[in-house]
Amino acid sequence: MGKSIASRFENVDLVRSELRAVIINDDELTLEMDFCLEEAHPDYEAPGVGEDCCFHPGLLKFAGISKLSLERAEHSPEAVRRYAIQSFHIEGSKFDMACDWGTIHLQARSIRVLTE
Protein backbone atom coordinates (compact mmCIF):
# COMPACT_ATOMS: atom_id res chain seq x y z
CA MET A 1 0.00 0.00 0.00
CA GLY A 2 1.30 3.51 -0.87
CA LYS A 3 2.18 6.26 1.52
CA SER A 4 -0.51 8.68 2.67
CA ILE A 5 -0.39 12.29 1.50
CA ALA A 6 0.52 13.45 5.02
CA SER A 7 3.41 10.98 5.35
CA ARG A 8 4.90 12.23 2.07
CA PHE A 9 5.33 15.63 3.70
CA GLU A 10 7.20 14.32 6.74
CA ASN A 11 10.37 16.38 7.22
CA VAL A 12 9.28 18.86 4.54
CA ASP A 13 8.82 22.49 5.57
CA LEU A 14 5.84 23.39 3.38
CA VAL A 15 5.71 27.07 4.27
CA ARG A 16 9.39 27.48 3.34
CA SER A 17 8.83 25.49 0.13
CA GLU A 18 8.22 27.44 -3.07
CA LEU A 19 5.88 27.20 -6.04
CA ARG A 20 7.57 27.29 -9.45
CA ALA A 21 4.67 26.86 -11.90
CA VAL A 22 0.94 26.18 -12.22
CA ILE A 23 -0.13 23.98 -15.15
CA ILE A 24 -3.80 23.40 -16.02
CA ASN A 25 -4.98 20.61 -18.40
CA ASP A 26 -8.65 19.60 -18.73
CA ASP A 27 -9.62 18.34 -15.25
CA GLU A 28 -6.02 18.21 -13.98
CA LEU A 29 -3.83 20.73 -12.19
CA THR A 30 -0.09 20.32 -11.67
CA LEU A 31 1.97 22.45 -9.30
CA GLU A 32 5.72 22.41 -9.90
CA MET A 33 7.34 22.84 -6.50
CA ASP A 34 10.69 23.27 -4.84
CA PHE A 35 10.13 21.44 -1.55
CA CYS A 36 12.22 22.65 1.42
CA LEU A 37 13.62 19.51 3.05
CA GLU A 38 14.44 19.35 6.75
CA GLU A 39 17.61 17.65 8.00
CA ALA A 40 15.76 14.46 8.97
CA HIS A 41 14.50 13.94 5.38
CA PRO A 42 16.32 11.07 3.57
CA ASP A 43 17.08 13.28 0.53
CA TYR A 44 18.40 16.21 2.58
CA GLU A 45 21.67 17.81 1.48
CA ALA A 46 23.36 20.92 2.85
CA PRO A 47 21.84 24.03 1.23
CA GLY A 48 23.70 25.56 -1.70
CA VAL A 49 25.54 28.85 -1.53
CA GLY A 50 23.12 31.70 -0.88
CA GLU A 51 20.22 29.38 -0.01
CA ASP A 52 18.80 28.89 3.48
CA CYS A 53 17.06 25.62 2.62
CA CYS A 54 17.70 22.30 0.88
CA PHE A 55 15.33 22.65 -2.07
CA HIS A 56 14.21 19.46 -3.83
CA PRO A 57 12.07 19.58 -7.00
CA GLY A 58 8.71 17.85 -7.08
CA LEU A 59 5.13 17.98 -8.29
CA LEU A 60 1.67 18.05 -6.79
CA LYS A 61 -0.75 16.53 -9.30
CA PHE A 62 -4.50 16.86 -8.90
CA ALA A 63 -6.85 14.82 -11.12
CA GLY A 64 -10.62 14.56 -11.30
CA ILE A 65 -11.11 18.13 -10.11
CA SER A 66 -14.69 18.83 -9.06
CA LYS A 67 -14.14 22.33 -7.63
CA LEU A 68 -11.42 24.80 -8.60
CA SER A 69 -10.78 28.41 -7.67
CA LEU A 70 -7.61 30.17 -8.84
CA GLU A 71 -7.05 33.79 -7.92
CA ARG A 72 -3.84 35.06 -9.48
CA ALA A 73 -2.04 37.88 -7.68
CA GLU A 74 -0.84 40.87 -9.64
CA HIS A 75 2.90 40.90 -10.28
CA SER A 76 5.44 43.37 -11.51
CA PRO A 77 6.76 42.78 -15.04
CA GLU A 78 9.99 41.12 -13.83
CA ALA A 79 10.08 37.36 -14.29
CA VAL A 80 9.58 35.54 -10.99
CA ARG A 81 11.08 32.05 -10.76
CA ARG A 82 9.80 31.01 -7.34
CA TYR A 83 6.74 32.05 -5.36
CA ALA A 84 6.86 32.06 -1.55
CA ILE A 85 4.09 30.16 0.25
CA GLN A 86 2.10 31.68 3.12
CA SER A 87 -0.27 28.77 3.84
CA PHE A 88 -0.62 25.18 2.61
CA HIS A 89 -3.32 22.70 3.61
CA ILE A 90 -4.40 19.27 2.33
CA GLU A 91 -7.23 17.39 4.00
CA GLY A 92 -8.81 14.42 2.28
CA SER A 93 -9.73 15.54 -1.23
CA LYS A 94 -9.49 19.27 -0.44
CA PHE A 95 -6.46 21.48 -1.06
CA ASP A 96 -5.87 25.14 -0.20
CA MET A 97 -2.75 27.23 -0.71
CA ALA A 98 -1.98 30.94 -0.51
CA CYS A 99 1.28 32.15 -2.00
CA ASP A 100 2.88 35.03 -3.89
CA TRP A 101 1.45 33.52 -7.12
CA GLY A 102 -2.08 33.86 -5.71
CA THR A 103 -4.54 31.50 -4.04
CA ILE A 104 -5.57 27.99 -5.05
CA HIS A 105 -8.60 26.16 -3.65
CA LEU A 106 -9.74 22.85 -5.07
CA GLN A 107 -11.34 19.50 -4.50
CA ALA A 108 -10.02 16.54 -6.50
CA ARG A 109 -10.57 12.80 -6.78
CA SER A 110 -6.80 12.18 -6.80
CA ILE A 111 -3.95 14.08 -5.15
CA ARG A 112 -0.45 12.77 -5.86
CA VAL A 113 2.92 13.94 -4.57
CA LEU A 114 5.84 13.23 -6.88
CA THR A 115 9.48 14.01 -6.21
CA GLU A 116 12.41 13.80 -8.55
Order of helices and strands: HEEEEEE
Strand content: over 45%
Mean pLDDT: 87
The number of strands is 6
Biggest pleated-sheet summary: 6 strands, antiparallel, barrel
Class of secondary structure makeup: mainly beta
Determine the number of helices (DSSP H or I, runs of at least 4 residues): 1
- Rounded Rg: 14 Å
Structure description:
The chain is mainly beta and 116 residues long. The protein has one domain. It is built from one helix and six strands. It has one helix at residues 5-8; strands spanning 12-25, 28-37, 54-72, 83-91, 94-99, 102-115. The chain has a six-stranded antiparallel barrel with strand order 1-2-3-6-5-4. The protein starts with a helix and ends with a strand. 20% of the residues are buried. The model has no long low-confidence stretch (mean pLDDT 87).
